[in-house]
């Protein structure tokens, strides 16, 4: 892959021609209009995806649109009130899910394709047994040449355990199904050097070779108001994909027949190249399937040792502990400037770590007793540059 980076167009052709399994995420800004779910878009998508499927590709769809479909359905319901509360949004989503799936099912049926609805929560990813069960179910569906259509199970997901946006969900599905390509259909025409809504002179980026070096927050002015997370969440999802060695194609789903054109190698959107060295599936699962329970701040020496020398985190480098967490919990590691170094599984509970931070390893036993871990976080249980 590294030799091909000198000619990214050739790299793109190689990716598109060899891809056998793709995750396609369809955003709410693509699927909906002021009137609700746009059935013309659903049918055009089915047309293009069916063509990819006929060519032998395995396709997994991560879709938005349930809330929009639900809101359209309750317009004539005298007793329904679309309020800005969690129970109301979950009720609207429950009404819309079946309608959204019906439209997909009918659209694909016209092309002789069978679809399957898969509703997931963050809990399905956090629990290893449920994760493996979902993985086996999806693999069976793909073996049967069925097209899985995935959405968050908003009806039962509590606020603290929501993915937040379907970009995050889609990036986790990549690992779940061992995808080889991530296509993110959005309202934007790709990634720009700056927010084009604020600076019309912003230039499009046809390729991002090293997304880990990209100033995502600076480019996007933080999160934007389009969809749940805007371009900010799409770039974070692409960064997670890159860590799995999965390339991402960010394309405007509002462009007529965008998928067909993208796979015909028309120059459109932004290609995000995968990292040259991927992280292990275990570390990816560890870092992204749970929310960090707390934060550990480290000094400059420790941050350098972690980033440049691949060392484990020792108590001597810890300067501050925030939050309450138990032994084995996932925590965020911050440097002395407050920048994220990575995430990892702590060998110590927060109350114990507060008692030994700053101490040399040989002094830990004096405070907590013998037989304890020499590392606060072992490097095998740590992912640097986590896209959180």
Automatic annotation (TrEMBL):
Q: Name one Pfam family in it.
A: PUA
**For this chain's UniProt record, which GO biological process terms are given?**
L-proline biosynthetic process
Tell where it localizes.
Cytoplasm
Q: Does the keyword Protease apply?
A: no
Q: Which keywords, in A-to-Z order, does the entry hold? A: Amino-acid biosynthesis, ATP-binding, Cytoplasm, Kinase, Nucleotide-binding, Proline biosynthesis, Transferase
Enumerate the spans annotated as PUA domain: 294-377
Q: Does the keyword Nucleotide-binding apply?
A: yes
Task: Give the main location.
Answer: cytoplasm
One GO term in the molecular function aspect is: glutamate 5-kinase activity
Name the residues that span the membrane. Answer: none
Q: Which CDD domains match?
A: AAK_G5K_ProB (cd04242), PUA_G5K (cd21157)
Q: In which pathway does it act?
A: Amino-acid biosynthesis; L-proline biosynthesis; L-glutamate 5-semialdehyde from L-glutamate: step 1/2
Provide the E.C. number(s) assigned to this enzyme.
2.7.2.11
Q: What does this protein do?
A: Catalyzes the transfer of a phosphate group to glutamate to form L-glutamate 5-phosphate.
Q: Which domain of life is it from?
A: Bacteria
Per the record, the similarity remark reads: Belongs to the glutamate 5-kinase family.
Please tell me the species this chain comes from: Alkalidesulfovibrio alkalitolerans DSM 16529
Indicate what this protein is called per its UniProt record. Answer: Glutamate 5-kinase
List the GO cellular component terms: cytosol
Catalytic activity reads: L-glutamate + ATP = L-glutamyl 5-phosphate + ADP
The residues listed in the UniProt record as binding ATP, with positions renumbered to this chain, are: 25, 228-234
SMART domains (UniProt xref): PUA
């Amino acid at each position: 892959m590294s030799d091909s980076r000198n000619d990214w167009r050739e790299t793109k052709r190689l990716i598109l021609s060899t891809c056998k399994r793709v995750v396609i995420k369809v955003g709410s800004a693509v699927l909906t209009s002021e009137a609700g779910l746009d059935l013309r878009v659903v049918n055009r998508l089915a047309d293009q995806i069916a063509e990819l499927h006929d060519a032998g590709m395995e396709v997994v769809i991560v879709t938005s649109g349930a809330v929009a479909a639900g809101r359209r359905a309750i317009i004539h319901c005298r007793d329904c009130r679309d309020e800005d509360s969690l129970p109301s949004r979950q009720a609207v989503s429950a009404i819309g899910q079946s309608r959204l799936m019906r439209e997909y099912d009918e659209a694909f049926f016209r092309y002789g394709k069978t679809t399957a609805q898969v509703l997931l929560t963050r809990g399905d990813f956090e629990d290893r047994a449920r994760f493996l069960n979902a993985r086996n179910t999806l693999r069976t569906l793909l073996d049967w040449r069925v097209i899985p259509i995935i959405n968050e199970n908003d009806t039962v997901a509590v606020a603290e355990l929501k993915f937040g946006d379907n970009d995050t969900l889609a990036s986790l599905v990549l690992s779940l199904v061992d995808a080889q390509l991530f296509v993110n259909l959005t309202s934007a025409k790709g990634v720009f050097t700056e927010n084009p809504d604020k600076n019309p002179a912003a230039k499009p980026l046809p390729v991002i070779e090293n997304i880990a070096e990209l100033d995502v927050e600076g480019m996007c002015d933080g999160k934007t108001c389009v969809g749940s997370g805007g371009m900010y969440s799409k770039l974070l999802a692409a960064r997670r994909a890159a860590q799995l060695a999965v390339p991402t194609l960010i394309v405007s789903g509002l462009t007529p027949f965008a998928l067909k054109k993208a796979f015909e190698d028309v120059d459109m959107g932004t290609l995000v190249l995968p990292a040259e060295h991927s992280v292990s599936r275990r570390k990816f699962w560890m870092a992204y399937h749970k929310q960090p329970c707390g934060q550990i701040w480290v000094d400059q020496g420790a941050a350098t040792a972690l980033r440049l020398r691949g060392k484990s985190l020792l108590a001597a480098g810890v300067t501050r502990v925030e939050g309450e967490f138990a032994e084995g919990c996932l925590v965020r590691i911050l440097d002395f400037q407050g920048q994220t170094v990575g995430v990892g599984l702590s060998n110590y509970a927060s109350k114990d770590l507060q008692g030994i931070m700053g101490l040399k390893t040989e002094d830990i036993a004096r405070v907590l007793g013998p037989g304890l871990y020499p590392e606060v976080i072992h490097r095998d249980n740590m992912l640097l540059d986590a896209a959180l």
